[in-house]
Amino acid sequence: MATPMENALLITAAGMGLVFVAILLLWGLMEGLVRWLAPRTPPEEAAAPAEPAPEELTRQAQAAAAAVAVALARQAQAAPPPSPHPAGAWQTLRRAGQMNPRLQLYQRKSRGTRL
Predict the structure, then answer these.
(1) Distance (Å, rounded) from C-alpha 25 to C-alpha 83?
(2) CA 99, 105, 111 angle in degrees (round to 5)?
């Protein structure tokens, strides 16, 4: 008769094995569906497209450069103004609390005590 610890280890190993078998089964099922349902292309369409002429390359490069310039100009116009508090809201509140004793929330005494 096995000890309870050995039984627990056997049950754990069986459970983990079943999980991995199920994962592999699902993986195989998905792989099979992808291969079965994938569109089949004729060999002529699967060939690489012809390279564009050098004139087209220069036009494409010019179009890409113009697009980048427009995008950079739009980004510069749409940039939000800089924050008046670059340190952040929490740090601003903490500094205000240090300057004004009424705002010191964490250093307050409880209501039952007197100053």
Answers:
(1) 55
(2) 125
pLDDT for 42-66, tens place per residue? 666 556 666 766 676 688 888 888 8
Q: What is the DSSP letter of 106?
A: T
CA 29/CA 38 separation, integer angstroms: 14
Please tell me the pTM assigned to this model: 0.35
- DSSP letter assigned to residue 49: P
* CB 78, CB 72: distance < 8 Å: no
C-alpha distances in angstroms, 29 versus 3, 21, 32, 36, 82? 39, 12, 5, 10, 54
User: Tokens standing for 78?
Assistant: 């749409």
